[in-house]
Design goal:
GO molecular function: metal ion binding
Number of helices: 6
Helix content: 10-25%
Order of helices and strands: EEEHHEEEEEEEEEEEEHHHHEEEE
Distance between the termini: 66 Å
Subcellular location: Secreted, Extracellular space, Extracellular matrix
CATH superfamily of one domain: F-spondin domain
CATH topology of one domain: Immunoglobulin-like
Main location: secreted
Protein name: Spondin-2
Number of strands: 19
InterPro entries: Spondin/Thrombospondin_T1 (IPR051418), Spondin_N (IPR009465), Spondin_N_sf (IPR038678), TSP1_rpt (IPR000884), TSP1_rpt_sf (IPR036383), TSP1_spondin_dom (IPR044004)
CATH architecture of one domain: Sandwich
Largest sheet: 7 strands, antiparallel
Length: 400
């Protein structure tokens, strides 16, 4: 795993882009920068392709909620971050992002305000080159059109395109109209409207990450134990004052990550079911005595690790960041000699129907039965839906 600082420098000034530069109501400014680290199969947006609805909505209205929820639910996304909005056309904003070897690409986006649906962005920048993390890289960013709405000028009325167009680059003659906001017919290329710099802050081995995750959990448990016996309101206020003083910028209390800000969107939202992980092996145990305040089904330290990894608060006052919860899963999910051991899933069967909706099945087999106190075998069959109504032959009910 590696930690990168993302620094975005906005260069949208009246001197650089004098044509129809927004001076007031609304003046030139930028939305928050939203970014994700992800694997190679994921795309936030791509020039020449139709953007997904959450990106089109963000490009038009600057709303992040849907993109955040989509990223939380997508296993291809590893970490998410945002930086503060800028109230002027020029300035600098930054945050941190976590990457690992399976999720080494970065994508990000920020809306140009005001505009119909214009934005800047980075599409799938790979920070791992030749099996090594890049130390630093700087990119020039150009204005993009999300294809969601029509409008030539920054303050033009917003008319949504139906169907939406593809994401495209603004060029000195594209849009080729004198009223267009980026129409500079005497230039060959537009100057960069922003720059982004990715700087490696620290690199971690798998063992270091697992050790940090367990150390963070133990520190939180010790803190909770210190607060035990104090008046509830006082203990909570003290904890929030010291550990949750800044919105979206809690700090970890172990040495290796001192002064590194936690990413803002890495915890599950309230009233949504937590993601569950099927554990089929025993984990290394510790001899820490459990408080009675914990749920009765938490029998040992490993149960606490799993519960916190699933996002449960357990009286700690806050959840761990998502990147540590994912590492906790790996730390405790180790094969033990007495555990049931199963094979990898086989291939999916063909769809059970050729028209409409059906089912597909896959199976796995037991390689080694459990012994003694080992973990039971997980389910050996799996099912998913397949097909669609459009696969049926068309029937013309009005054929006379």
């Amino acid at each position: 795993m590696a930690v990168y600082k993302v620094t975005v420098r906005m260069l949208w000034s009246e001197q650089t882009f004098p044509k129809d530069y927004p001076m007031q109501r609304p003046k030139a400014q930028w939305s928050p920068v939203f970014g994700q680290s992800h694997n190679k199969s994921y795309t936030l947006f791509r020039v020449g392709e139709v953007a997904k609805s959450s990106v089109r909505n963000f490009a038009q209205y600057g709303k992040l909620d849907t993109m955040i929820l989509e990223g939380e639910e997508d296993p291809r996304v590893y970490d998410q971050f945002s930086t503060p909005a800028l109230g002027t056309g020029t300035g600098e904003t930054e945050n941190l992002v976590f990457v690992d070897t399976d999720h080494s690409e970065i994508s990000m986006i920020s809306k140009i305000i005001p505009s119909p649906d214009w934005f800047i962005g980075v599409d799938s920048l790979d920070l791992c080159v030749d099996s090594s993390w890049v130390d630093q890289i700087v990119l020039d960013l150009e204005p993009l059109d999300a294809g969601a709405a029509s409008g030539l000028t920054f303050t033009a009325p917003r008319w949504e395109n139906s169907p939406p167009g593809v994401v495209s680059k603004h060029k000195p003659r594209q849009q080729n109209h004198p009223a267009a906001g980026f129409y500079y017919p005497n230039k060959k290329e537009l100057p960069p409207i922003a720059k982004v710099e990715f700087t490696k802050v620290k690199e971690y081995s798998s063992k270091e990450v697992n050790d940090l995750a367990r150390k963070e959990l133990l520190n939180n448990l010790h803190l909770k134990d210190k607060l035990k016996g104090l008046p509830k309101r006082k203990s909570l206020n003290n904890y929030q004052t010291t550990e949750l003083n800044q919105e979206f910028t809690t700090k970890n209390n172990f040495d290796q990550l001192v002064e590194l800000e936690e990413e803002p969107f890495g915890t599950p939202r309230p009233n949504l079911p937590n993601n569950k992980v099927e554990i089929v092996t025993n984990a290394p145990s510790t001899n820490i005595k459990m408080d009675e305040e914990f749920d009765s089904d938490l029998k040992n330290m490993d149960d606490v690790v799993l519960a916190v990894a699933n996002g449960n608060r357990l009286g700690l006052g806050k959840r761990l960041p998502r990147h540590f919860r994912s590492r906790l899963h790996h730390a405790v999910n180790r094969i033990q000699p007495d555990d049931c051991l199963v094979s990898e899933w086989g291939s999916w069967t063909p769809c059970s129907v050729t028209c409409g909706f059906g089912d597909q099945f896959r199976t796995r087999s037991v390689i080694r039965e459990k012994r003694g106190d080992g973990r039971n075998c997980p389910t050996l069959t799996d099912r998913k839906h397949c097909g669609n109504i459009n696969s049926c032959a068309h029937i013309d009910y009005f054929e006379w």
